[in-house]
Amino acid sequence: MQTVKEIMSTELITIMLNEDIIEAATAMKEQDIGLIPVVDQQNKCIGVVTDRDIVIRGIAEKKSISLKVEDIISNNIISVNPDTDVQQVTELMAKEQVRRLPVIENDQIVGIVSMADLANETSKQKAGEAISGISRPTDKHSQG
Predict the structure, then answer these.
(1) How many CB atoms lie within 10 A of CB 43?
(2) Per-residue pLDDT for 126 more than 50?
(3) N or C: which end of the chain has fewer CB within 10 A?
(4) Dihedral, CA atoms, 25, 29, 33, 34, nearest 10 degrees?
């Protein structure tokens, strides 16, 4: 059984409620990410802001670009913990129709797991299986 902690990204960018959406959008662009965890003073994850939140709840509603993160935050956090099985993560992402999930342990954000992380891991597994199959001794002659 493979767990989230084996594939999650641990290099995190976080943002606080009082920061404006321009700061969030700039960080997303610079880091090439689409989700930033929103934390409080104790680094407790209290929500997330996504590129979609900025567009749908901010720009598309013609709100000021000085809008604060607290005005567009997604408070309903769908998350997993580091020991969650990768298969469960895949099923949860499909069910909730999300591409990224915060990884939370003891109310603290410890990572992000994305569809890309899952795809990379699946590719590694398939490559390993292929190599294993290729390397397996057989009675057939080598194709060299």
Answers:
(1) 12
(2) no
(3) C
(4) 40
Read off the pLDDT of residues 44-78 as tens digits, 9 standing for 90 and up.
999 999 999 999 888 887 777 788 999 999 888 89
DSSP annotation of 24: H
Helix, strand, coil percentages in the chain from 3-state DSSP, rounded to 5: 40, 25, 35
DSSP for 70-139, written as a single string: GGT-B-S---B-TTSBHHHHHHHHHHHT-SEEEEEETTEEEEEEEHHHHHHHHHHHHHHHHHHHHHS--S
Q: Report whether 38 contacts 50 (CB < 8 A).
A: no
Greatest Cα pair distance in the chain: 71
pLDDT at 122: 60
**Amino acid code (one letter) for 99:** R
Pairing between strand 100-105 and 45-50?
Answer: unpaired
